[in-house]
């Protein structure tokens, strides 16, 4: 029992020494709630639930986070702490987290979303309380309590069509400024602004700011435009236009204009006058405009002009007249007053040339009368002119000429021909028609004195007839050229070359060549050529599509490749395929060579036979000569060498027993085919050497057996 108590006491003392603890939970709270109005106080509470092994103190380290960023670090011995926000703003909206760390242990709370609703009312300020028309007004809108980014909306109130708004976004400031132009006609300006903010947690918009009032001062009044004597006048009346304006010591500019045409202007004055004698062209709207910088005010009135007499009308017999016909012109005017002056004129390049001071004009038309005509009428200083009339007098065309460019006698089939047709006389524009035979190929209208050009491509060989026709606006004349005859020739077609005989010809004999073309106009020039030799072997010009050449006595040097060229007046050369000609030996040459070879063979054969017979005869009658230096052949056909005795003497015909044996020749076919013949041959014995032992002199018979084989050749 005592031992158990001792163990418990030791264990307890061990636990006290270790001071064991654990963080069970970290809780985060918002006071008074998770959603608070803008400007109210907000407190964030952090509470740590910790279990300990004993009654000991622990230092707690609290860290507050908003949207992942550290807000505050607090160290305390208490298990709870708080983070206070005296006046919550929209920028305080976000996700809050609290983390507690004790010694080496730490734990985070859950995420808490806090929302701050609403924005404080912005403050709007105008840098000037009184501005002039055309001036730029600077407005400033700010929300000092809020943090950027902010969006500001400015509103101009009490304008036709509703408020005029402008929006501006600030990313780094809680205020912004804009410039608003003061428009002409503005009197009292009213402005207000609204602030708004956007974030991941939503959007909030403030209440409108207080209205800011700005007074507008006019630099000058709206102008007044007066037309004297009245707004309704008659052609020829003298009219005065007067423009007046009230100005406050500004350097203004006054302009009087009709439509877009400026009639008069002045600067630094408050009155502008314009005088004119009106015509029908002066009927319309007149404007007086006063400008100062970007400020512009205007007044427009309409002046009605009554016509004194009508616009004259030029009556003509025709706009296109044949040369030699009558040209008649008459000017007519409708009006209440008698016409004081009427004139008929021509106009060229803006200059008028008087023809007649009356209402009519008549003359016999000439080409020089081609012109633009007008007539004018004048009453009380008012001059009016008719619409211009263009009258053309046409001289008849001459007979056109037709030719080929460049000039050639013959043309090639399938190639385009260029023609030119021209009538040397006649008033442009001249219309040319181009004919092949009686068929119209093409037409062209020329507005100057240059020739007309046409192209045609012949499709048949032979003679083609071409012509052209010229005409203009003359009512009667139409002329045609003489016919132009063109010879159409075709270039040579495919060229063929054949030989008889083909490929080979005997030496000394002749060969025929036939060169022909499949198509082509005559005459045709034919050439026979050898490859790598530009000099023709034969050349002929034929009124035919083929030619035949015969060449006699060919030799080996004439072997080679041959081809034919053909051309006609088109100067287009065509070439045939190459053919090979090989010159071979003549028949008699072949026979002669054969006989020569045969004679050589016979001679060689006879020589061989003679040699064979001589060899055989020599083999049947051999002769054997013995000399001192020659050996002796025994009956077996073995050569006996001289033998020296003990005294140094030699004895011919002696053979050692060890060497005395038979040697069979390779030619022997066997003992059954051999016939042994014994002959006696007298052998002359040479005189012995004087230093040797003496031997018997004279001729001694020596018997030698000579065997001959019956099958020896």
TrEMBL record:
It is found in: Cell junction; Cell membrane; Membrane raft. The keyword NAD does not apply. Residues 24-109, 223-302, 312-392, 400-485, 491-580 form the Ig-like domain. Residues 1-17 form the signal peptide. It is a single-pass type I membrane protein. Its main location: other. One of its GO terms (molecular function) is transmembrane signaling receptor activity. The chain crosses the membrane at residues 591-614. This is Platelet endothelial cell adhesion molecule. The lineage of its organism: Eukaryota, Metazoa, Chordata, Craniata, Vertebrata. The gene is PECAM1.
